[in-house]
Design a protein that fits this description.
eight-stranded mixed β-sheet, 174 residues, 4 helices, Aminopeptidase
Length: 174
């Protein structure tokens, strides 16, 4: 399946193995992945395996998750992902932007497009997101998306053994 979403400045399209160089640039950067629970990918081979799994998901009629590459001027600058819950009425929204492109509104723009896709095309009734309480940039993205604060809870980083706190924000459709 190929789905392309267009915004004012960006194209969101399925991420694939051909994007390995651009993806590896940010998934291997400690600053870029500081608040990411499931990153980094330790090397290019692990990144390639991840991208193959992404391609497998996109080949399904109903993917478990939709991993969109965020494309600016033909360059992948990050990803935005919708992780579908089993009943497909809820989806978790996540994003990462290469640090070279932060602070320009791309995370909000891409996340809004993905959230609209989830609601309008997939029939999702609730979109939620989590972020480390220290990650004010991601918290601000959630607020700009119109999500409401739901609660604070524990967060654990397997790669460092660190325990932290996280916020959960929710956007629901009546």
């Amino acid at each position: 399946m190929y789905i392309e979403l267009k915004t004012e400045r960006l194209i969101l399209r399925p991420l694939s193995v051909k994007d390995i160089e651009e993806v590896y640039e940010y998934v291997s950067d400690k600053e870029d992945i500081k608040y990411m629970v499931y990153l980094p990918k330790k090397d290019k081979q692990e990144t390639k395996e991840f991208l193959r799994e992404v391609e497998t998901q996109w080949a399904k009629t109903e993917p478990e998750y939709y991993e969109f590459g965020i494309v600016l001027d033909e360059r992948v600058i990050g990803t935005v992902t919708l992780y579908m819950e089993d009943n497909r009425t809820k989806a978790e929204l996540g994003w990462i932007i290469n640090k070279k492109f932060r602070g320009m509104g791309y995370a909000t723009e891409a996340s809004k497009a993905a959230m609209d896709f989830a609601i309008d095309k997939l029939g999702v009734k609730e979109v939620f997101a989590h972020c480390d309480t220290r990650n004010k940039a991601s918290e601000n993205v959630m607020k700009r998306l119109g999500m409401r604060y739901e609660h604070e809870g524990p967060r654990h980083y397997d790669r460092t053994g660190e325990d932290a706190r996280e916020y959960k924000y929710v956007y629901g459709v009546e």
